[in-house]
Amino acid sequence: MSRPSVLFQLSDQSLAYGDHRVLDSISLKIHRGEKVALLGPSGAGKTTLLHLLYRQQPEQVALQPQSGGLVDLLSVYQNIFIGGLDRVGTLPALWNLLRPLAGHRRAIGALVQTLGLEDKLWQSVDRLSGGQRQRVAIGRALYRQQPVFLGDEPVSSIDPLQAELLLEHLLAQHETAVVSLHNRQLALNHFQRIIVMRDGRICCDAPASELSEQCLDAWYQQADASSSADPVSAPDEWALAQS
Amino acid sequence: MISSDPLGAVYASRSSARVLNGVCVLLVGLAVLAIWGADLALYPVDPWQELDRIGQGLLLPRWDEPVVLLQAVGQTVAFALLAVAISVPLGLLLSMFFHRRMVRVLCASVRSVHELFWGLIFMQLYGLSATTGLLAILVPFTGVFAKVFAEMFEQQSRDPLLTLAPRLNSLKRHLYTDVPQAWPALVSYTRYRFECALRSSAILGFIGLPTLGFHLETAFKQGQYAEAGALLWAFLLLIASIRFWVRPRLIPVYLLLAVWLLPETAGFSNGGYFWQFISQDIWPVALREGDLSGALDWYGYMLSEQVWPGLVQTLLLTQIALVLTGVIILLAYPLATQSMAGTFMRWPGRFLLLVLRSTPEMMLAFVFMLLCGPSGLPAVMALALHNGGLIAFLVANASDAEYGSRLSRPDDPKGLLRYAYIETPRRFPAMLAFLFYRWEVILRESAIMGILGIATLGFYIDSAFEEIRYDRAFLLIAVTALLNVLVDSLSRRLRRLAQTEPSRQQEMSCLKME
Q1: Which residues numbered 135-164 in B keep a CB inside 8 Å of some CB on A?
Q2: Does B167 touch chain A (CB under 8 A)?
Q3: pLDDT digit string (tens) for A41-71?
Q4: Looking at chain B, which residue has its C-alpha nearest residue A17?
Q5: Which residues contact B310 (CB under 8 A, 6 or more apart)?
């Protein structure tokens, strides 16, 4: 590996929607070549953090947002092709809407085999299941052919076996990756570094080798405990204590 | 997440109903004041006898020359279809650059001039020709398409953009994300606009193009009411059957037919005349010769004798028509609803509203003018009936969409009580929003009614063209356009004040925070 250089850097970054604090003084460095998993309960600020990172290096990032960003009326082929739009001139891009360009057709044909979507290539994506749509979104990210991958739960609705394979493929195809996940086991098995977020703060940032599933679970449970200290839900806790 | 709202108390004291009522009282008050100033005289022309004959003509339409009727229908469709076919791609292209101020100003200014005024302008350049008819529709429509398409693109999810290369050119970006995302909305709006184009095309007959309006005006003026009835029914049938004959696959065939059907006079004017027209003819002589005091005299005369009186009448009629439109909506919409008229009895109501919605204001005004003479009264009636019918139809549809849904309860009141306690309060904000959207249209139309002889701005514009005083016509058209832009921004503000703006879907995309 070449000399590690800093790719993303945040120092004491905060962000709020109105009164709601989404990110609370985050400081973070991510180097070229690192594979980072982002864990934490929903609403912890993972998505916002990924978008902030995206804005630091939009030119070399393939981003896969949680929604996938698919265009419903276009086919699987066109939706993946969109990832490579910058490599095509305007006129060929126009023509491609009517008749797929031969070179891209071959490349995307090979790509959908990896994704297990070869029989859906010409179907519009609004007719696909959640897992299939997610695989199309992965296809687009791969077709961007960028050195950095930022994924917001990129494999959350794919069946476990295929999810693992595709995640591995994504990590192999990108030099650097920051991926938010729900599955702690996937994070431990495939990433070198794990960041756990809670209430807009980074509460754990450690090499994966130093962490175990139990200690990750503990972070989630603590998050639950702290939110039930909220005055609104206090009566529930009281009821639980009574029973 | 459940949270107690500390601002709840503040919101509770701000009643939305009070704001809406305030806006309504203001509008009605202004309309009542306007009645004093407006020319609403009823001329004694014995309307009942005339009405009787028109009624007979409508019930017993007759047309002796089917070829002429077919040709008129064909040319009406041809102008509309070709104009839409050209203005949609142009509008699409402009909508991609709508973030530029230049494009927005250009679109707003072409939009604010009515098709008929464009027709009068192009007539000076290209005579009574196919070019004039096409340009008269496609120029303002391009501006409308650009604005509406841009708004539709704005409402699409921003997520696909995040997955693209960051510096793609506009065309590629739009064609692969916004256009396919908004496709269903684009198609349905274009379909609606085609209906508007048919109305505009028919109306262009009033200034001499060979469409349905031309034959209609002739038939009415000659008292051939059976023929006029046939023309009106043909037009209504044409509009009502759009969804049966407009098929995507058939459109290329129609386009070829349309080109073949256009009047043979292509109407080319040499570039020299065009240049003379915009550099000399439309400016007052005094101004061209650098005679400043003469120019000031000219503008002073125009302002006091034509612009001001025309402006005042246009605004007064618009205000009365706006409020009367509201009254018509409130009276007419229950007739077409399932919950109040009943599953079967709503069909006559829907039919009536569809007829009102499909008949252009100009045609209605023209008929009413034969009955009540040339005052503001026919214009106000026509504007209120057409726009009221159009909005009442939408309101009735909204009511039907809710009928039997989870919002309805078995113990809901029936009949008049239901109207007063359930339906009207629920529909009111949307109804006001539609009304404010139509405000600009009502203003445009009441200005144009002048062509029929009512003393609004259109009357002075029409006379200026007749007297070949292009300088006057240009000034008056510019004032009309400016007035439109002003009313548009005022109506946007009122909508915001009354909080009737349809809520856009909130985007949680982080890129919007900046």
Answers
A1: 157, 159-164
A2: yes
A3: 888 889 999 999 999 999 999 999 999 899 9
A4: B513
A5: B450, B455, B456, B457, B459, B460, B476
B160: nearest CB among A17, A52, A69: A69
What domains lie within chain A, and their CATH numbers?
A: 6-242 (3.40.50.300)
Task: Tell me the residue type at A36.
Answer: V
DSSP-derived letter for residue A231 is G
Alpha carbons B252 and B14: distance in angstroms, whole number:
56
Q: Which two tokens stand for residue B265?
A: 């006079």
Percent of chain B with pLDDT over 70: 91
Which pair of tokens denotes residue B30?
């202004």
Q: Residue A69 and residue B2: Cβ atoms within 8 Å?
A: no
Query: Whose structure tokens read 């009264």?
Result: B377
- Compute the nearest-CA separation of B12 from chain A (Å): 21
**Å from B132 to nearest chain A CA?**
33
Residue in B4, B160, B172 closest to A90 by CB: B172
Q: Is there a contact between A140 and B163 if contact means CB atoms under 8 Å apart?
A: yes
Structure confidence by residue, pLDDT tens digits, B403-460: 877 777 777 778 888 888 888 888 888 888 888 888 888 998 899 888 888 889 999 9
CA distance A200 to A71: 31
* Length reported for chain A: 243
- pLDDT-based confidence at B388, cuts 50/70/90? very high
CA nearest neighbour of B160 among A90, A88, A63, A48: A63
Domain B15-44+285-501 and domain B65-269, same fold? Reply is yes
Q: How far apart, in whole angstroms, are the C-alpha atoms of residue A63 and residue A71?
A: 15
Q: What is the mean pLDDT of residues A169-198?
A: 93
ipTM value of the model? 0.79
Question: Nearest residue on chain A to B173, judged by CA atoms?
Answer: A85
> What value, to the nearest 5°, has the Cα angle with vertex B259 and ends B256 and B260?
90
Give the residue ranges of DSSP H helices in B241-345: 242-245, 251-261, 271-276, 285-288, 292-302, 308-332, 338-341
pLDDT of B82: 95
User: In the prediction, which pLDDT does A216 show?
Assistant: 81
Given B2, B165, B167, which is nearest A232 (Cβ)?
B2
The CATH code of the domain at B15-44+285-501 is 1.10.3720.10
Architecture in CATH of B65-269: Orthogonal Bundle (1.10)
pLDDT of A71-86, one tens digit each?
Answer: 988 999 999 999 999 9
Query: Residue ranges per domain, chain B?
Result: 15-44+285-501, 65-269
Of B472, B459, B467, give the one whose Cα is nearest residue B282.
B472
Residue A209 C-alpha, separation from nearest chain B C-alpha, in angstroms: 32
Choose, out of B2, B168, B176, B512, the residue to mutate when testing the contact with A (most A CBs < 10 Å).
B176
Name the minimum distance, in Å, from the CA of A79 to any CA of chain B: 8
Q: Within an 8 Å CB–CB cutoff, is residue B166 touching chain A?
A: yes
Global confidence as pTM:
0.81
pLDDT in tens, B126-154: 888 888 999 999 999 999 999 999 988 98
Task: Write out the DSSP string of B269-299.
Answer: --HHHHHHIIIIITS-HHHHTT-HHHHHHHH
